[in-house]
Amino acid sequence: MTQPETRRSFITKLAAATAALVSARLLPGNLAAAATSGKPWATGMALNIQFTVATQATGRVKRPYVAVWIEDSAGKTVRNLTVWVSQGRQNPRWLAELRRWTRDNGDLVSTVSSATRNPGSYAVAWDGKSDKGAALPQGDYYVCLETAREHGPYSLVREQLTVGASSFKKTLGTNNDIEAASVSFGKA
Question: Bridge partners of 183?
C-alpha cells in the first residue's frame, strides 16, 4: 500500500521538474559545454586571435589603447593576453576608456601593459593557461577585444566560443575601430 503524497513531497517534485524544464529551455548551449567541461586543454593546441585596428580611420589617427583577454563562461577574466596603453603621465585619464577591461583588471596595468602601437593588423595567442599559469579545462570562453582612442571611438567585440579538442576557425564581429577579428584553434 502506497502512502499518500504530502504537500512537501509534491512541492519538492514540482520544483525539481521546473528546474529541469527551465535549464533545458533556457540553457541549451550548456549541453556542448557539459560534453567538454572538465576535460584538460588539448596538449600542443593554442587559440590564435587575429585583429585589425583602425586602418580606415580618417584624419590624424592617434594610437589606440587595446586590450585582448579571455573570460570564462561566467564572465570572469582568466587570462590577459595583451594590453597596449601609454605609460606617460596622461595614462590614467585615457586608460579608463577601456571600460570593460579597466573595471575588472585596472590594477594590473603596470604588470601587463606594453606600449601602444600604430593602427594595423595584429595577432596574439592563448595557450589555455590562466594569468597564474594554471592549465584551464576545455569549455566555453569569451574572447574580448576592446579599443579606445583619445577623442576617438570606443570599440568592444566579445564573443563566446567552445574550446574542445578539435581545430576550428571563426570570424568574430567588428565594431568601430575593430575592423576585422577572427580566431583559429589548432596546433601551436
Answer: 49, 170
Picking from 176, 109, 185, 106, the residue whose alpha carbon sits closest to that of residue 141 is 185
DSSP reduced 3-state for 26: helix
Helix (H) or strand (E) segment spanning residue 150 = none
165, 138 Cβ separation under 8 angstroms:
yes
- Grid cell digits, residue 63: 594610437
- Over residues 142-171, the pLDDT tens digits come to 999 988 877 677 888 899 999 988 889 999
Contacts of residue 115, defined as CB under 8 A and 6 or more positions apart, other chains included, come to: 84, 86, 87
pLDDT per position as a tens digit, 56-73: 656 666 778 888 989 998
Contact 113, 83 (CB under 8 A): yes
β-pairing, 65-72 vs 154-163, is: unpaired
Instruction: Please state whether beta strands 113-114 and 77-84 pair in parallel, antiparallel, or not at all (unpaired).
Output: parallel
What is the enclosing helix (H) or strand (E) of 162?
strand 154-163
* Amino acid, single-letter form, for residue 52: T
